[in-house]
Amino acid sequence: MFTTLRQSMTWLHTWSGVTLGVILIVIFFMGALSVFDREIDRWMAPTTRLPARHASISLDALRPRIDALLADADQWRLVLPDARAPFLQLGFRSKSGPRNFAINPASGDILPDSGTLGATRFFYPFHYTLLIRAFNIGPWIVGAAAMAMLVLLTSGVLIRTGLFANFFTYRPKGPLLRASQDLHAVMGVIGLPFFFVIPLSGLVIFSAVYLPAGIDAAYPGKANVFFDEAVGAARLPKSGGPGVIGSLDAMRSSAERRWGAEAELLLVTNARDANAVIEFRRNTKDRVSHDGEPIFFDRAGQMLGQGANRPARSTLDFIWGVHLLRFEHWPLRWLYFVAGLGGCALIVTGFVIWLEKRKTKPHPTGVRFVEALLIAASVGLVFATGGFFVANRLLPQDTPSRAQWETVAFFALWAASVVHAGQRVAAGQAQGAWREQAWAVCIMAGAAPVLNWITTGDHLAKSLAQGQWAVAGVDIGLLAASFVAAMAARRLGRAGETASRVEPQNRRSAQVETDHA
Amino acid sequence: MRPEMIAADKNKIPRSRRTATPRKWAIAMRAIAAVFGGYGFVWGAVACLTLLLIAIGVPRSESVIIATLLGFPLYLFILLWAFASRSLVRVSFALIGGAAGLIGLSRVLRGLI
Amino acid sequence: MPEILLVASFAASLFGFLLLALSLPRHWRETMGERHLPSDLRTGLRIGGFSFLLASLVFAFFRDGPAFGVLLWTLLSAVSALTVAFMLAMRIKRR
């Protein structure tokens, strides 16, 4: 097909980028937001802005309330409070579908439905499913994009000449094409370890979906057995006879003594059976590895077993941990966030290079289509996200199916961005589309903290003074986004003026070029 | 890459081996062979490696994890190789044939273990 | 103490990348004028640059241990290298 390695790798880099780049931007952006998912949740669900409690709560005291909610559920899980999510989360599957409740650890009361999906149930699943769950289509698209990211990085390194001679070269004052090329190369090389490890670990996390070849070969038709064996899970068959679970507090303290760490999660299977199994997992906030070291008890509190700790499994847990960052390490959390946004910038600059190279000729339809798509996927996505925050504060708390309306607002604004970008680009005013949408981001992101102040009374000075870091952090992030968008819009305005002054000449020379060709 | 470099590369190569812009069907064939043939190849290789590891005494669940972890870098290598290789025929045969062979072999191995 | 080590790690990697950037003929020319970069100075700058990067890694290890340390160092280096690239760009703009 191609005569040299460089030619073939250039082709591969260009076209895997153009086809899957837009999806990669969305994945990187939603991933970056998911880094602060719990904090965004606190901002979006003001009823959960509870003070963090240090004393551990009695599970046995909560049992009557939990049992009343469970009714006849056979399996349930309880996430214990921590500094980032200061309440208990009860989840189970009832006859009418999955149910989730948040419980105030101080009073044992059920917190009112927050009426929002927040970040943990909107941005986070968006990151790895694109919210397309039918037939696992979304996860497969994300997997293809992750694989494309690995291909893009490797082919990018192979075609890049002067990788080290130009390691730090960035010339923002020059033409847009050269500045983008510099920035694209600098960020790609500098961020290479992060940009490589993140998609790879993401693929590994979903390997049971993407590549179940090994499971299929070693455990044909019995994937569950693999998962149990891999973690060293203890299971009991259902006896059929009824049973009542003993003291959960006793089991928890026995598990915590073994770990020397606090419990994070408890899972109950065969809940109403004499052979109930209670699994405790420790929190992993002091370590990278996502290894909960599960401990299993029967209903009387007798230990059934402890998770196995084998080398490959431990490696896998470490890879999970690197991607999921369940640890408590604020500098790293911020760096992940910045690096995630850097991933978006890397791909956007890649697109700008592709577009600029094709703009000397009269724009073919394909190029316009890609530019409109890029505008909607970058600024448009930020605009829709800002709109999600605004909708969260504007919708009255008692709106029926409030969470759905927030989602509708997000997608309606995103669709509006697509239409606007498409229409402006088709009219040959791509620069205008970029500028106007940047102003729209500025307004949305700036409005959200103000609305937060009006609706909850937690203005920035107050949340900072009270040590409400989650609320303050999200406010600051939104204000920063608004400021950056304003700067970008102003710069685009200035660049637009110079461009329009130069453009007639350019167009003439482009015409001459095509005439010659 | 800068266009003048492609030109320079082209000039070094004898006229007889120079190729024009690849035809659409050739690209489509190569992409299909790389993405789907390559996936089948990786599937077969992971299955075979899992069973071989079990055969030499590695615990079953550990064998699955080791082989699966190696599968993703292998797929990356195959995708790059499929586009770097000159011959479309070689790529198609190696990947589609290799996939069939390895998956078949894994079935045989599964019967033995 | 952890915050001091964090700042030290970042500062060391920033300085290390600055030295490495200066060891590249193009950036030496742009920042120091048109002068030629002598080869023993270049070697010195490279050794100095890599030593500071190593020091940065050591600080990160002392702060967080090997697992968190490697992650922290990788991401801090990315930020500091990008900072150096921007600093060099600003410097050219001003001249």
Automatic annotation (TrEMBL), chain A:
Annotated region (Disordered), positions in chain: 496-517
Pfam families, alphabetized:
PepSY_TM
Has keyword Transferase? no
Q: For this UniProt record, give its keywords in alphabetical order, as a comma-separated list.
A: Membrane, Transmembrane, Transmembrane helix
Bias (Polar residues): 507-517
Q: Which domain of life is it from?
A: Bacteria
User: TM segments?
Assistant: 12-36, 140-165, 186-211, 334-355, 367-391, 438-455, 467-489
UniProt keyword annotation of Membrane present:
yes
**Annotated protein name in UniProt:** PepSY-associated TM helix domain-containing protein
Q: Which organism is it from?
A: Methylocystis borbori
TrEMBL record, chain B:
Keywords of this entry = Membrane, Transmembrane, Transmembrane helix
Q: What is the lineage of its organism?
A: Bacteria, Pseudomonadati, Pseudomonadota, Alphaproteobacteria, Hyphomicrobiales
* Name under which the protein is recorded: Iron uptake protein
Residue spans crossing the bilayer: 25-58, 64-84, 91-109
Specify the species: Methylocystis borbori
